[in-house]
Amino acid sequence: MPEGIQPGVRMGENCRTHHAERVYAALRDGASAAQSAIVASWSRSATKYGLNPEDRRPPRRLDQHEFDTAFQRMELLVRLAHTTLDRLFQSVGEAGCCVLLTDRDGIPLDRRGVAGDDADFRRLGLWTGMVWSEASEGTNGVGACLTEGRALTIHRDQHFLTRNIALSCTAAPIWDAQGRLCAALDVSTGRSDLTPAMLKLVSVATMDAAQRIETAYFREAYRDARIVVGGGGGLLAVDREDLVAGANRAARLAYGLTDERLARPLPASDLLDGAAGAPAEDLIAAERGAVRRALSRARGNVSAAARLLGVSRATMHRKLTRFGLDRAT
Which domains are assigned to the chain? Predict the structure, then answer.
């Protein structure tokens, strides 16, 4: 077991009682839930889900059929995330951490961990097929991340259940190609000696890995389209007629895009020219750069450059005019 780990099942009664009393005291203070995201999650755990902070039952585990069904639904994402999970584990594994990729219901579908720690992490419930939703486990990294749709860390006694307060869990959401929350990436450890600086590094690495997985998922969904990359992680999928075929969550938020708006023909140039602020400027610069690179590779041949970009010759000429590149060809 990683140095410093203290599984909840081995905690003394005084520790259990103290944590439970702290939770109940915070819940009795009506203002606490409005002032603290942690207490708000504790409140959901107790009142919405009817959980008891002193509950000692282990996390619920899916049977094989339930797990296979959940895995098949997300198999593509799991496959695309494989390399990123390996790299993330390489950066955090030596700190006594395991890495979990869960679905939208908080069920780990894939994990990484040191083999020598597997028995301990399995006992703690940090294993595939367990259920880490907020409704099942109360306040925890995966559950709170999926409930609130944001990256966060639940550190030790911020957990709702006493048996989980030896853990530090950092989780980041993953959004699908339609901007819907579909998964979470979690790095958890039972070490008691992690410094705030180390936790911050783990958080940054987790969020970066989650964004890489999300980007790979988006690119796979629109593998036949041209992807225009903007600031803040915004991605637009543009078809051969220069129409926006899809947008990830960051781009949807930046440009006010909805499924209804994307269902109608939407010229990428209209969207980019009409948007204000740095994200639009970044996207326009990225597209102009792509056009210039295509022209360079095609040695100035417009038809060849259009084929490289996967657009029609007429669309290519419009882009050249729009970016002021027609005079250079």
Answer: 8-220 (3.30.450.40), 226-328 (no CATH)
Cβ contact 82:166 at 8 Å: no
CB atoms within 10 A of CB 273: 11
Per-residue pLDDT of the chain (329 residues; tens, 9 = 90+): 344 444 433 456 677 789 999 999 999 887 676 679 999 999 999 999 999 999 989 999 999 999 999 999 999 999 999 999 999 999 999 889 999 999 999 999 999 999 999 999 999 999 999 999 999 999 999 999 999 999 999 999 999 999 999 999 999 999 999 999 999 999 999 988 888 899 999 999 999 999 999 999 999 999 999 999 877 889 999 998 889 999 999 999 999 999 999 999 888 878 876 554 445 566 677 778 888 888 888 888 999 988 888 888 888 888 888 888 876 55
Ranges of beta strands (E only) in 239-286 are: 244-247
DSSP state of 179: S
Task: Report the distance separating Cα 109 and Cα 130, nearest Å.
Answer: 9
- What phi, psi does 117 have (nearest 5°)? -100, 0
* Strand residues in the chain grouped as ranges (E): 97-103, 108-112, 152-155, 168-175, 181-189, 226-229, 235-238, 244-247
- Residue with structure tokens 């980041």? 172
**How far is the CA of 120 from the CAs of 9, 37, 113, in angstroms?**
11, 30, 11
Q: Are 111 and 103 in contact (CB under 8 A)?
A: no
Cα–Cα distance, 15 to 34 (Å, whole number): 27
Dihedral sign for Cα 315, 319, 322, 328, please.
negative
Question: With contact defined as beta carbons under 8 Å apart, do 169 and 140 qualify?
Answer: yes
Q: What angle do CA 69, 74, 78 make, to 5 degrees?
A: 125
Q: How many other C-beta atoms lie within 10 A of the C-beta of residue 193?
A: 11
Region class of 24: left (phi > 0), else alpha (psi between -120 and 50), else beta: alpha
- What is the pTM for the complete model shown? 0.81
